[in-house]
UniProtKB/TrEMBL annotation:
Membrane topology according to the record: Single-pass type II membrane protein
Domain Peptidase S26: 43-259
Gene: lepB
Organism: Gordonia malaquae NBRC 108250
Reaction equations catalysed: Cleavage of hydrophobic, N-terminal signal or leader sequences from secreted and periplasmic proteins
Spans traversing the lipid bilayer: 45-64
Gene3D superfamilies reported in the protein's UniProt record: Umud Fragment, subunit A
Annotated signal sequence range: none
Keywords: Hydrolase, Membrane, Protease, Transmembrane, Transmembrane helix
Residues forming coiled coils: none
Name of this chain's protein: Signal peptidase I
One Gene Ontology CC term in the entry: plasma membrane
Entries under Pfam families matching the protein: Peptidase_S26
Subcellular location: Cell membrane; Membrane
Length: 274
């Protein structure tokens, strides 16, 4: 009978209701959290890096900085030579903000005149972009400063007169009084004298006569502990400062040797005048 026939295109009431209902898809909560966690992790890393760099900047500029000893002029106190593990030293930059350098202090200073530069070459790249990057890195002690830094021991300060005459056998004198210098390895000076056929390390001065030089106020006279192998104030008496170093050019006082670990330890100040 016709009443029993149904149209194939017609939808039953149950099917229509099902089609109108919204469809829900169940997602794993970890899928939504993953980008958030990743972004949060990157922000945390960025904050940590910024804090570390900030601390490095403050410490480098105002408190402490690391330097490398480039030569043997301060042996045996500090080691430095071609092909060896040069001492990495830590310099106290705060001490001379509140006090003046004293005789016996081991200091790092910037070459005050061109006569000190010798064979020094800037560590900066000739590429202007790389050069600027190196300048920025130096603010954080991740690159060496673009200046000729040297390390020596303070022997005399402003107002004092320093000199040495081999003939009198006194060695270096300050205000006419001979110094007591236990940091000098005398056998090293004798060996240098022998190795150079008497050209270096001879006499009570372990070098040529010099002085008298009166150190100007605000300046210091510096010498290397390896007296016969040090181009210190003696080698620059003919420049405009007579070999002396302005206190303003001193970068800090050497406090300790950081590396190599076999030489880790403090660097003391021995007053040769005392």
């Amino acid at each position: 009978m016709d009443d029993d026939k149904t149209n194939g295109d017609e939808t039953s009431p149950v099917d229509a209701d099902a089609a109108d209902e919204p469809k829900f898809v169940i997602k794993d909560e970890s899928e939504d959290d993953e980008p958030k966690k990743s972004g949060r992790f990157l922000r945390e890393i960025a904050i940590i890096v910024a804090i570390v760099l900030g601390l490095m900047f403050v410490f480098t500029q105002f408190f402490f900085r690391q330097y490398v000893v480039p030569s043997e002029s301060m042996e045996p106190t500090l080691m430095g030579c071609t092909g060896c593990s040069n001492d990495r030293i830590v310099v106290d930059k705060m001490v001379y903000r509140f006090s003046d350098p004293e005789p016996g202090d081991v200091v790092v200073f910037k070459a005050p005149t061109s006569s000190w530069d010798g064979t020094w070459v800037s560590p900066r790249s000739s590429n202007p972009v790389v050069h600027k990057i190196q300048d920025v890195l130096s603010w954080f002690s991740l690159s060496p400063p673009d200046e000729n830094n040297l390390v020596k021991r303070v022997i005399a300060v402003g107002g004092q007169t320093v000199q040495c005459t081999n003939a009198d056998g006194k060695g270096v004198t300050v205000n006419g009084k001979p110094l007591d210098e236990p940091y000098i390895d005398k056998s090293m000076q004798v060996n240098t004298n022998t190795e150079t056929d008497g050209a270096l390390g001879g006499g009570s001065c372990y070098g040529s006569d010099f002085g008298p030089v009166k150190v100007p106020d605000g300046n210091v006279w510096v010498m290397g502990d390896n007296r016969s192998s040090s181009a210190d104030s003696r080698a620059h008496v003919d420049d405009e400062l007579q070999g002396t170093i302005p206190v303003s050019d001193i970068r800090g006082k050497v406090r300790f040797i950081l590396y190599p670990f076999s030489r880790f330890g403090g660097v003391g100040s021995v007053n040769p005048q005392g």
